[in-house]
Design a protein that fits this description.
Elements: E1 6-9, H1 13-24, E2 30-33, H2 39-42, E3 48-51, H3 53-60, E4 68-71, H4 77-80, E5 88-90, H5 97-112, H6 115-123, E6 139-143, H7 147-157, E7 162-166, E8 178-180, H8 185-191, E9 194-197, H9 211-216, E10 222-225, H10 234-242, E11 248-251, E12 271-273, H11 283-298
Parallel strand pairs: 1-2, 1-3, 3-4, 4-5, 6-7, 6-9, 7-8, 9-10, 10-11, 11-12
Helix pairs in contact: 1-11, 5-7
């Protein structure tokens, strides 16, 4: 029996195709589109689709006969927000935890080591012998206790951080010493020396971190957001940084990307900006996950990491 045909739609489509074909054999029926404007031309009714959500919205406009879509991203909001939902959507888990952990720890350690201040001291020829801080016995509040949040918590706990979580239910998780529900947001924020945003892009998460939230945080707290840009009221964050309501922030995600050149965030004090690179979709990692699910799909088993369209994750 022939294997189900596959359509791959992502910038690295040819790389994905090569990896998948090396596992399935040269006879595997695989079509690709490496540009969004080629999707409707290249798609020929394949029932299995692997691709980046922002590419696939154009395909969903056709109400295609696709039965299963595997996202190459952890975030799937472009597909969640689309009206066409007559297929099974699966996300990415167990892939980004290591990358996110390294990114977060890089910036937490830089903050404790006062690297921003030390670099400034070096530029003006000042001998800087101020003692560094330590992560030990500090509290990291992680907003989002899914697989990535749990991986970050486990990595940080190994360095002595106390990790608390914030999620939709307040249910405890083995990787966290305590969990808070949405009604306890202010208490959650007030306990944290570091606040890490890992929440999905949902109406319920929009603007959670606003002026009131920043006012409840410790004045020496550091905010790191690597989840979705809608979590933060960016204007309120600029005010909080200028008025020293919090010590600093690290942002990898924004409401508008790329961040516009006239955004006030660029000149906000004690703010580090990176261009949505905290955890990238590497073809080898995503292809491995896809092949695992493809095998399950072909044998009629339940797929891993299915997305609930109503919940958004």
């Amino acid at each position: 029996m022939s294997l189900p045909s596959i359509f791959i739609a992502t910038l690295d489509a040819n790389r994905f195709s090569s990896i998948i074909r090396s596992e399935l054999g040269a006879s595997a029926d695989i079509s690709t589109a490496s540009r969004k404007d080629l999707l409707q031309k290249k798609y020929h009714g394949e029932e299995v689709v692997l691709g980046r959500p922002d590419f696939l919205t154009g395909l969903m406009d056709l109400a295609p006969p696709v039965r299963w879509v595997q996202s190459t991203w952890a975030g799937v909001s472009p597909l969640i927000q689309h009206d066409y939902r007559k297929y099974v959507l699966t996300g990415v888990k167990g892939v980004f935890g290591q990358q996110m952990s390294e990114y977060v720890l890089t910036h937490l350690l830089a903050h404790e080591g006062r690297l921003r201040q030390r670099w400034h001291s070096q530029t003006i020829g000042l001998w800087d012998n101020e003692i560094s801080g330590t992560l030990r016995n500090k509290t990291l509040g992680i907003m989002g206790t899914g697989s990535i949040g749990a991986a970050v918590a486990e990595s940080c706990a190994a360095l002595g951080l106390r990790c608390i979580g914030f999620n939709t239910t307040g249910r405890p998780h083995s990787a966290f010493q305590q969990a808070f529900a949405p009604g306890d947001l202010i208490n959650f924020l007030s306990e944290a020396d570091y606040v890490l945003g890992l929440l999905p892009d949902l109406p319920s998460t929009a603007g959670l971190l606003n002026a009131r939230a920043f006012g409840s945080m410790k004045t020496d707290a550091l905010l790191v957001n690597v989840g979705r840009g809608n979590l933060i009221d960016e204007d309120d964050l600029v005010v909080a940084l200028k008025s020293k309501k919090i010590a600093g922030a690290v942002l990898d995600v924004f409401k508008n990307e790329p961040l516009p050149a006239d955004s006030p965030l660029w000149s906000a004090p004690n703010l580090t900006i990176t261009g949505h690179i905290a955890a990238i979709s590497r073809p080898d990692d995503i292809a491995r996950l896809f092949l695992q699910n493809y095998d399950r799909y072909c044998s009629g088993q339940a797929l891993l990491h299915t997305i609930d369209f109503d919940k958004g994750y």
